[in-house]
Amino acid sequence: MRHVIALDVGGTGMKAALARVSGELLHQARRPTGRERGPEAVVEGILDFAAELRAYGEQHFGEPAAAVGVAVPGIVDEEQGIATYAANLGWRDVPLRQLLTERLGGLPVALGHDVRTGGLAEGRIGAGKGTDRFLFVPLGTGIAGAIGIDGRVEAGAHGFAGEIGHIVVRPGGPACPCGQHGCLERFASAAAVSEAWATACGDPEADAADCAKAVASGDPNAVRVWQEAVDALADGLVTALTLLDPRILIIGGGLAEAGEVLFTPLRDAVRRRVTFQRLPSIVPAALGDTAGCLGAGLLAWDLLDRTDRTEVTP
After folding, report:
1. What's the pLDDT at 312?
2. Contact in structure between 33 and 10 (CB atoms under 8 Å)
3. Which DSSP letter does residue 257 get?
């Protein structure tokens, strides 16, 4: 049964699957990233995990995987197959494609940025299926974005396209690790809402999910914190839709798990801000934490498709 290996490498854990061209996941597995053991151990863990998946596929489905797709965080040189930088994994300039190809006996490997890879899956087989233009924005520890155009995701000239979290929405606001002040992710990420709510309610253990529950119960303090985040997010999204004119805005990540507690005020806030712009549909992501794996599988199948076309071209 023809299949590919799909790996989604996160800051704390790795998700993997063997995927068919239809997107069906034949086998799924998870393991810790092991970042506490250092960047070299993380890389070795990825290589070992991929090798185990290759062996599993050969044993259970009669043939080894045809290709590998890998999604990693940080800065990624997709063309050269290099994981350039990831602060939370501690690596720099890791030739991950080459290392995987060597470990796996010459298998072709596609490397992608984690958010763009998840966005690829949401656009093709998730909430944006059938849409020609979309923007995928996951609200997690930070905020990133994936710009979808006709079934592919735009990486930009230098691999930085879609970094909506670093749009300045509150000039002169809190410092951001990127070096600017007042960036969107300092106000509307799950981490930012958790921090704001923990301060407001006096419980250092409180997080964004607790804030959402308090909003749903009518707590005025929580409503204030939540609305400040929603207003900042709406400002950032309107800037993005002014530039990109997407047909659909797909919102994912931890904050989106609040459901209509987030989406009802967010749709209202965006609607109030648009003037000449066409208002896109604002919908929740559909694939949850499988988006990265599914997207990595799509990267692998796309790579095989390009290889097949090249081989038959006279």
Report:
1. 46
2. yes
3. G
